[in-house]
Amino acid sequence: MNHIKQSISWWCYAQRHMTIEQIVHLAKEIGYAAIELVEQEYWQVIKDAGLEIASIAGQASIEEGFNRREHHNHLEQEIRAKIALATQWGIPNLIIFSGNRAGLDDRMGAEITAQGLKRVAYFAEDHGVTLLLEMLNSKVDHLDYQADRTTWGVEVCQIVDSPAVKLLYDIYHMQVMEGDIIRTIHDYHPWFGHYHTAGNPGRHELDERQELQYKPIIQAIAATGYTGYIGQEFIPTGDPEVALRQAFEVCNSYSISTESLPEKPAFYQ
Predict the structure, then answer these.
(1) Which of 138, 169, 222, 255 could form a disulfide with 148 if both were Cys (CB 3.0 to 4.6 A apart)?
(2) Whole-model pTM?
(3) Are 93 and 129 in contact (CB under 8 A)?
(4) At what angle do helices 181-188 and 150-160 cross, to 10 degrees?
């Protein structure tokens, strides 16, 4: 039985004063396959433990991204260097950002973002690295961020038209902005190259205190035949080990479908 691979976002636990050795030990013990969003100084520790690095940040700034032409030159250099590094270390994904609107029309922002991504898409293709445009909420955590709607991100991907450019569908962020998570996964999953989790509100554990029902959400993802990672990117309020074990079990509930996705999953009926 094949289950979706799971990873742990390092920054959520670094701010809880856990060491990389503690997280690596927990990940191995629980069954996680990878760590992500982790600084290069820790990569060898992760690799030595037999774990993968699921993703790293492709660019330094969230606010100053691909939706401004004046950023394209330095972002191209930054992304190309990160792609080369990712290839060397066997890292499959780089996370990239649209940048803030700052009054920019959404249609124009999508076109400019796509133009910038076209400059690095073929280089990423040649190196087997996926560029993940992250969907973030502009209501609570990242005010004025432009890639805050699934359809906007899909439009960018369609314009770029490269298998190396996908979306990082962050379930927490998109619940804040638009909800309708399962239908969105069903309708747009071909554009999703990675998923992140967290409870809403608060970006905490995947437990009964928050509004998202993660078991049917994971069922919907598994039904698409998705073979990438689901990254646990929540900030635990209690014992991190308990939270990571609980989240792992929730996201390990369903095996990946080997059949074509039905017109509507069973839970739509």
Answers:
(1) 138
(2) 0.94
(3) yes
(4) 10
